[in-house]
Structures
1.
Amino acid sequence: MADDKNPQCQQKIDPHFGTKAIHAGQNPDQWTFKDVVPPIALTTTYKQYGPNDHAGFEYTRCGNPIRKVLQECIASLEDAKHCLTYASGLAATTATIQLLKAGDHVVCGDDMYGGTNRYFRNIASKFGLKFTMIDMTDLKNVENAILPETKLVWLESPTNPLMRVSDLKAIATFAHKFREDILVVVDNTFQTAYFQKPLQLGADIVLYSLSKYMNGHSDVIMGALVINDTPLFDSLAYIQNSCGIMSSPFDCYLVNRGLKTLHVRMKEHMRNGLAVARFLEQHPLVESVMHPGLPSHPQHAVAVRQCSGFSGMLSFYIKGGLDEATRFLQAIRVFCLAESLGGFESLADHPALMTHASVPPEERKALRISDNLIRLSVGIESEEDLIADLDQALKASVQK
Ligand SMILES: Cc1ncc(COP(=O)(O)O)c(C=O)c1O
């Protein structure tokens, strides 16, 4: 995506994205009454013609019409063959990890969503899985961390909350050269299918917390996996059904509705996100800003090479410490102090005390998830109101 206000991203936005978001999987002819908006079937079970002879669905844990619609729509946005949706992003993470067995090794980033870190460290490791957490921005670290027993490489790019960017193509190429069957998983929650296509860069699985941008209305918790390989899809579908971690019909209906405006929302998130990042970067009460679309970002060149734009996510260090950060977060009026991200409304988060409190303190210290780090999810309100709000809150941060 390239215009005079935006970084010169080298990947093209899919010109058919909006049409797919609105029509893929939604053909009215599949319904008895030709519903233009896919209906919600709240039934748990389906009448059969004869034993195991049915119209496509037998029990809603195994499959449901609106879930099928949503899964087809998401797969199409990713130009992929398959998608599976789950009760949350973390349920999608759980499903992915269920592909492994005791003794298997996972290489993952040291900076990632706190809940993923907690799941790997405190739950999955109890079942004999080993995790090596590294800074994925340096390919050499990945090369050194991969072992003969490595089965999975897990990436977030940009990372949550430090906005680090990894070279997805280089990492996937190295992992697959090392051993063909190493699975490369990319959590694409921050970028969405609109701005980044990890499967096209060599990933095997794309993971989403649909609770964020993809739904975009901060009213559903859901996750998804997107896959091209059919045997891998079959294994994951078996896990989805066997573990019972699928999404509910009503939630699928809402996410399917939210997806219809994803392309419209993402353009606004990008515009506002960049405007806020540029404003903060020149502000005397800000130490530094992390937004991959800024030329000052250490991996800016990789970012513009592998994506077609940026979401409204950014983090910054406010000058001072916990007191200044707290005063800032209590002074915001248009931004709201709350966990989560990716909705139409602007949110501010204090990672050390909120979303990343479960990351061990010594690790937070090493990563610089410090008391003066603030993460913003810039929404689609009017740009000047967002900037005026940040300006007054920054001024309030130094008023004792
Ligand atoms: C990057 C990322 N991945 C995964 C998750 C987990 O998603 P969920 O909250 O839907 O379980 C989150 C949640 O904040 C996230 O930010």
2.
Amino acid sequence: MTATTPKLNPVELQKLEKDGLAVLEDIYRYAQSGDINEVTESDMNRFKWYGLYHDKPKDGFFMLRVRLPGGIMTADQADAIVHLAETVAPGRVEITTRQTFQLHTIALRDIPTVFETLESVGLSSIEACGDVPRNVVSSPVAGIAADEWIDPRPFFKALDEHFAYNTDYSNLPRKYKVSVAGGGLDATQAPINDLSFTPGRKEIDGEIVLGYNVWVGGGLSHEPHLAQNIDVFVPADLDAVVEIARAITLVYRDFGYREKRNHARLKYLIADWGAERFREEVVNYLGHPLERAATDVPPAVYSGDVVGVFRQKQPNLYWVGLLVPTGRITPAQIREAARLSREYGQSEIRLTHSQNLLLPYIPEARLDALLAEPLLQELQPNGPRIQRTVVACTGLPYCNFATIETKEAAWQLAGALDQKVELDVPLRIHLSACPHSCSQHSIADIGLQGGVIRNPDGSKNKLPATDILLGGALGDDATIGRRVATKVPWSELADRLGNLVTTYQAQRTSPEDQFRHWAKRQTDDQLRVYLGFGEPETEEGVWTEEGSWNKSR
Ligand code: HEM
Ligand code: SF4
């Protein structure tokens, strides 16, 4: 370090002392002893490079996230997850917003068994957490959506192979998330990833070339940012896509901020540099010029809802999307899904951003038989509209940051709203139990950031409550939701949101006028009135500038 080197945060110093990937042999050593007290604090942090987080209450049991590019897995891989959940990972199995499985309650001594079981079916948890390129996401209907421009599967697989276990990228300033879209029915989550590829086509040397536009600097958490288009087009060629991904990631590695953990994501560098300067640096790293972005692009639509029966682009084939309650799935249900994928499909299962599960490649002639199977009566393809897209973060009892239980609370809330309002369009409600935003609440139609408030009866038991963010969106009109109310008691929420959604339904101009469009036309004060808080300033009280409701004394 020189005198001009900025002061590094403690995690940076740990990473210089020993790379995250180098902790593997220590994990085996710790597992052999089985004594959690032997694990040093810095090694515990490095466990993340192998997809492991110390579950609450930090007494020797772990959460493990699988690396599953694009959320696509085979039936055999699903069976391996079942085996783990029934033997060494007895906690809840969750489908996550980045299209993978998360297992809980793994004892330190059982970690090697978990690694070996995953490896035996070609899976791993490598770099599923940590300051590294994470699981690459895509559309859950990649390669099967009828109106897709490019099949993104070879691209996200190539990126995954390039990034995983590569020491060039094992010490990035912070987590690094990548997405590849195909265009078509359900766009991927390009605006909230650090690096995203979205399809386009342009004329180069007299020929129409299909390829990707490139976006950088999206990310959620405390200060959400939407990705910026850096005005680059690369042809749909595996080497070209990997080459630019490498250059962008190295620029981030070398110039990204390492002073403060909460100011280290790529989004902060992009906010300071702007897209053009970042582009110039990428060109420097590449050593050759880049094409400007394509303007001929497909519409980017994001509904988050691929539950149901949909025709694939392949003739006579369908995918069937199953509704999993806020991503909580039992080992028996996964086993049955694997069996059905073998019997009716092509032994393939997919996981979606809305924490649901898809069975693709179902022949038209077998649809009725599949729909009559017992599993589809439990995880219903025609489940209620709001429950289909409700998303909840891990929350209590597993997450150390959590203030409230999320999965059941969000599921019940969505169910109550489905009872109150019959919607014919998707409405995405996402709940996180702290500002980290693991449920992606900032880009939901209705985003909920849970917390607790004092109990009015004066007792020590705090009550669940939530901030309400409205009008978030992905796709072409990507928007960060506006925080219109804070600390709303959970017990009042179903009624308040019921009023709001009913008002939307009554006021919308057509089914195309979706919740986010309508919310954009309303002022914060209007939205608060629809939430049932009365006029902005009434005899009952007043809204503060921060958005909380002060009752008149
Ligand atoms: C400093 C701590 C953390 C921060 C800042 C953080 C932030 C985030 C953010 C912003 C996402 C959004 C996903 C996306 O970009 O698409 C996410 C995803 C997620 N987070 Fe966290 N998180 C933290 C810790 C945790 C912990 C402790 C848990 C669980 C015990 C957790 C569980 C998840 C899950 C399940 C996802 C879904 C994504 C995946 O599969 O990779 N997070 N996190
Ligand atoms: S949002 Fe907060 S409470 Fe929820 S899983 Fe993420 S870190 Fe935990």
